[in-house]
Prior knowledge:
The chain is mainly alpha-helical. It contains nine helices and four strands; from the N terminus they run ααααββααβαβαα. The chain has helices at residues 4-7, 17-27, 43-47, 51-86, 134-142, 149-154, 168-171, 206-214, 218-230; strands at residues 92-98, 104-110, 159-161, 187-189.
Amino acid sequence: MPFLSRNIDRIGNDVGESQTHRDEDSTASFGLQASPKIRNTGTLVERLSSFYARRGKHLFDVIAAFFLIILFAPLMMLIAILIKCTSRGPIFFSHKRVGLNNELFVIHKFRSLDINTPSYSEKPGSTNDKRITSFGKWLRKTSLDELPQLFNVLKSEMSLVGPRPEMPFLAEGYEPWENQRHLVRPGMTGLWQLSPRRQGTIRDGISVDLEYIEKLSFWNDFKILIRTFKVFWDNNTY
């Protein structure tokens, strides 16, 4: 990797005792531990000091999410009704994920798997996976199961474009250079999500996430959003 992998010195361990207790309490019900804080030092901070990285991206995300929620509200209501009518269980599937600066948050999706599927089981490898509900196959094919994440964007927990949201127990094993991907908000879509390496291991996607951060700009985010719409009906999405 370019300078990204060399300039953040280490993951800081200077979280206050009270904050540590709050993080542990917030994750106790999930059986997970909060990831350590990232110490904001090194060349990467200079790289992320542009107006777009500091203010513009977040402002665009919140405004866009607000209008997209209004636009897709009828569709989301219809999807919720169809989930309840076609399978047993809740409408939403929620997971603990690692966000900006390793802060934990709960990500939301429309449920597309059978209610008896373990929360952290391996993701389906094809649309023929028996754990996927009948309506869930269409949701995963069109990626419409991701729509509830617009509320995560509105709450400033996610971005429209960014690195893949990581599960805490995986992030705990990150090397310091890998943990740099958490210096920006995770995204609903991103370079990794559109990359052929999406079919590889989770660890393979880290270099793609860091590549995205290296080239962070409004123009690159715009191109990723356009590419996302182009593959919206991609049969490889499941």
